[in-house]
What we know:
- Helices cover 74% and strands 0% of the residues.
- The protein is an all-alpha fold.
- Helix 5 (94-130) runs antiparallel to helix 6 (132-146) and helix 6 (132-146) packs across helix 8.
- The protein is flat.
Amino acid sequence: MSGIASSGWRDWLLTETPASRSQAAWGRRYRLWRGFRDNRLAMAGLVVVVVMMAMSLLAPVLATHDPGVQALDSRLAPPSLTHWLGTDELGRDIYSRILYGGRVTLGMVVAVVLLVAPIGLAVGCIAGYAGGIADRVLMRVTDVFLAFPRLILALAFVAAIKPGVTSAVLAIVLTAWPPYARLARAETLSIRNTDFIAAVRLTGASPARIVLRHVVPLCLGSLTVRVTLDMSGIILTAAALGFLGMGAQPPSPEWGAMIATARRFILEQWWVPTVPGVAIFVASLAFNLLGDGLRDVLDPKQR
């Protein structure tokens, strides 16, 4: 019975003659999911991202030690049954600190994405649809931010405010939105003069309604792909700020800060800086694989 029900749902989703807009929308989503599912590397990236997020959220349950408790009598201990990934220079359990550090690093990434994507989308869509002086002003401001290397500009912003997680997030947001604005503007320019936008305009819809209801949804696909691909860069920027002492401050178990405090042990006690480095590498690779898979599915030029 379950197989028949599953086949029925599949036929309902894949029908060539949907009976409603809702059925057509769900059918399109199902086709996109099937295309994504067939990409093994993309599925591997998705699984790794979900696992890392889940382990970070469940850190209080999965951790074997308190990440902040120092045990100087067992400092720099190699991996063992007691300390699965060894201990750092203060005797703190590295495995537990990696779990809690994922909350900080991945939390920063999520916060940046939730802030930077709407800003870039709004600036790009307004500039592309309005044109004229608004387009020139917004794009020149965007060019000013693009003229500086992202990490250097983020360091300047953090130094001007105060080192910390909140300052690092704001600094990355202020330096990361320009590429999204330019992408959204390019998409909007290709949509603005199409026939269906002209038809909507003839119905008396206001420019704000046209942008929000018709332009923005068509820009979300390419923006989602760009955000996913950029998440690895955001992870590296957040870790770099932590490594340079401008992001999360000790004793916070942030991956970049963990590498900074352990870099002098890289030759003798290699596991101390290597484990957080591997965590950064795996997270960045997983987001890149996920972004490549989404690009293949969502970009019509790739199909």
